[in-house]
Amino acid sequence: MPSHITSITAAQRLDSRGNPTVQVRLTTNKGTFTGLVPSGASTGIHEALELRDTSSTAYGGKGVKQAVHNVTSIIAPALIEKKFDVETQLKEIDAFMCELDGTKGKKKLGANAILGVSMACARAGAAGLKIPLYEHLRLEAGALKAPYIMPVPFFNVLNGGVHSGNTMAFQEIMLAPTGATSITEAVQMGAETYHALKTVITKKFGPAATGIGDEGGFAPPISKPSEALDLLVEAVEKAGYTGKIQFAMDPASSEFFREGQYDLGIKDKTSPKLTPAGLSDLYRELFTKYPIVLLEDPFAEDDWETWSAFMAKGKEVKDMPEIVGDDLTVTNVERVREAQQKKACNGLLLKINQIGTVSEAIAAANLAFSHSWGVFVSHRSGETTDDFIADLTVGLRTGHLKTGAPARGERVVKYNRLMDIEDELKASGEDVVYAGTEFRTAHSAGGKEEGTKVPFNVFGY
Ligand code: PGA
Ligand code: ZN
Q: Quick one: which residues bind Mg(2+) (predicted)?
């Protein structure tokens, strides 16, 4: 029996930074399902619009009352009238909302309004089909089933950039327990190392330096990336995981790109301004000194030339890490295509609120996979207790995700959900493997014969 939407309500709720966000509650004949929308701080200029009540003084102009109103007064009546079956028509629903908006960047209704509905529809569809959300999303994406791939969790344990008050320009320094054998073990390794890092920081800088940034990572008074990576080396060693935990960085460099230069002293005025070539050299130097397996947004969102040159030169670099586009590609098939043509990167950061519907995010992931890119699912720095992306990661077989430190409720809810999924799959006798060192290519594990339904037309149903 199909599942039709009978009501959609929305409300303003808080995200992890204490800013308002959109919560959607959608009811079908099978129950009521929610979607809570995350929000970025180092937002790319090409992202779909996050609608805020800028003309109001409430919450400092960050209210989302208009987006809530758009859900209840525009999206809800139109969607209910269409009588879509949420079990089989997620793509049609998402396409319909895009049409209803009618602009390229969801500027009329707001990506935050549309995404909340899309997430709730995905959940309602899974419930109607009586399958877990990850399985529903897997079927939506046309991804292979066996084995289920549990992702390597990339824990952001040192926060800088616009996510913290220290002087480090680089935004995120991450731990990746590639040497674990399961997500459960990986979480333990990450949490133990996080605690070891706290001890290391306390010893070096005193207990006052163990305050944390927006994603739960520590934010000690350091400026240089090498200082951050040295702290990780020490913490990993202290926790007993040397060789089993590798590193990743998201400098989020669009935030410190000024007039053609990368200003590493953007926060403390003492570190150098680097040319694109100088910053490229710095990255390559760090690759030789530390076990870095992934580098995200090394260059600014429109500095295409430097991205392409860095990738070209990367062919000569032994063990070149995965180079992931975030602000560059914004989970948008048009930007992903451009990045593929320009050979600018080989990994896609997947943030559902950058594009504003679940279907379009899946399309971007499939396009990335079709070019043998990696796909790295991501939370936002302003998160909620919604754990949707855990299921998305497993359903799409992306092999890796980042969702902050192994601390703070809005971060651990995703890691806990991943451990639940792993337990559930194992208990039901399903074939399940941990991506480990193969996190970049795990998507195609188990054979390529079925392939993926690559929707070169975003809504290619
Ligand atoms: P944001 O940061 O959510 O603040 O954009 C995350 C990232 O840059 O990857
Ligand atoms: Zn990023």
A: 250, 296, 326
